[in-house]
Amino acid sequence: ELSDFIFEMELWILENVCALLKKLQVQGISAPIFSQNISSRHFHQEHFTGVVLNRVHSSKVNSAKIQFELNEDVFSINREWVTTKIAELQSSHINVALDNFGSGLCALHQLKGIRLSQVKLAACYVEEDLNSSTTQTMLCALVELASRLDFDVIAKQVETKSQLNNLIHAKCDGFQGYLFSRPLNEDDLIQLLQSKLTLSVI
Questions:
Q1: Which stretches within 95-185 are classed as H helix?
Q2: pLDDT 10s digits, 38-93
Q3: Segments of the chain assigned E as strands
């Protein structure tokens, strides 16, 4: 992320997401929302929104099927400009989520007035020993806070049933991780979507 290569890589990923959405659209397959991480350095580039919106619009796909995940530290520089960019993306129906929620990189007051499609908990809340009553209490409090702010809460990097049970107890809205599925290539993903099967804990 310290080099300009991250800009090109993220645009390449976006182009591939749009191409896959187009393929699903042509085949009449209902597509999920595809979520892509965007580095804070890239997001703060002056022409970021113009470039990504041009790529999405030119692909003629449903932009509501795209979600950008921003890291908490995106608000550390020029909050007003960040808020404006988020609103611009959302006006084109692109979802915007916050990654690493609860990591401490973003003061809560900076989220005031910002609409987010979801927040993803910092991995430490999943990885730590949740048998500790203090840790479990912190997790539950964080999830409740996000829910009160009207954010859907997603737990990521869920790898064990024990972790899942603790996160269900904390009332997270959704989960992702190896416990549900390994990474899928394009063909396997299309096959899964065509089958309309739901992923179960493995």
A1: 124-127, 133-148, 161-169
A2: 999 999 999 999 999 999 999 999 999 999 999 999 998 889 999 999 999 999 99
A3: 34-38, 66-71, 95-101, 118-121, 153-155, 174-175
Q: What is the mean pLDDT of the chain?
A: 90
**Beta partners for residue 174, in sequence order:** 154
Burial 134-153 (b: 16+ CB within 10 A, else e): eebebbbebbeebeeeebeb
Confidence of residue 132 (pLDDT cuts 50, 70, 90): confident
* Two tokens, residue 84: 């404006």
Beta-carbon-side half-sphere exposure of residue 168 (alpha carbons within 13 Å): 6
CA angle 193, 49, 156 (to 5 degrees): 45
- Report the alpha-carbon distance of residue 32 to residue 40 in Å, rounded: 25
CA torsion angle 189 22 66 184 (round to 10)? 10
Asked if residue 138 lies in contact with residue 108, where contact means CB atoms within 8 angstroms, the answer is: no
CB 103 within 8 A of CB 138: no
Structural element, H or E, at residue 32: none
